[in-house]
Amino acid sequence: MTADMTPLDLAHAAMEAAPDDDAARLRFYERLADGEMFVLLEAEHSGGESLSPRLFDSDGAQFVLIFDRETRLAEFAGGIAPYAALSGRVVAQMLAGKGVGVGVNLNVAPSQILLPAEAVDWLHATLGAEPEEALGAPEEIMPPRGLPESLIVALDTKLAIAGGLARAAYLAGVRYDTGAQSHLLAFVDHVPGSEGALARLVHEALIFSGVEAGVLDVAFFRPTDPLCAPLARHGLRFDLPVPEAEPSGPAAPGMDPARPPKLK
Prior knowledge:
InterPro entries: SseB_N. It comes from Aquimixticola soesokkakensis. By secondary structure, this protein is of the alpha+beta class. The protein is built from eight helices and 13 strands. The two termini are 31 Å apart.
């Protein structure tokens, strides 16, 4: 088996060490969804949006084989083999409702596991859950207090994959004009149209850290908004990474989450 432990290996080990810990199990699924996965194919992809993944049969069920490292896929296949690089969430979207599970890192890593079709469907449904919209005007910004460390870590991890969608985010306490108090994750200088994607990432951070959704609100501000000064003064700042320039040309299957590849 591969010696180097990957984030998925570490999350799997934590889940195995605490089988009754829902939070550890959720973190494993989060690492699976957010990570880049290499899907073993029957043949080289020849263009178009359809893929032909190699299927593995076990006890009457079928599984698509995915790996979190190219080297692990090659080790399993016994050499160079055709594959498609997709995020775990796109794999779940591609397989949802098809009655097909996923075999993760089989025979090549400590994180090897067979996830049945029901688990894939659950992951897809969880990732597809939409945050609720609410209206309210922040009246006072305060330092954040009492939030679990697991949520801070989950937010930091999620925002690391949101590069280019906003310049920064601030986590702070907030009092609204209605008198209600909560916590707020405020995105500053976001890309117009990215509000839904950023809100879903925060919603996922709440779900996968085991925190109730109502504990954190999401808002968006321009850099000139008067509330940006108290946010910077009292809030915990997250700097979103600046993405590298992407090559021009047609996107490969699975690179657009809105258009997942199809199974042949």
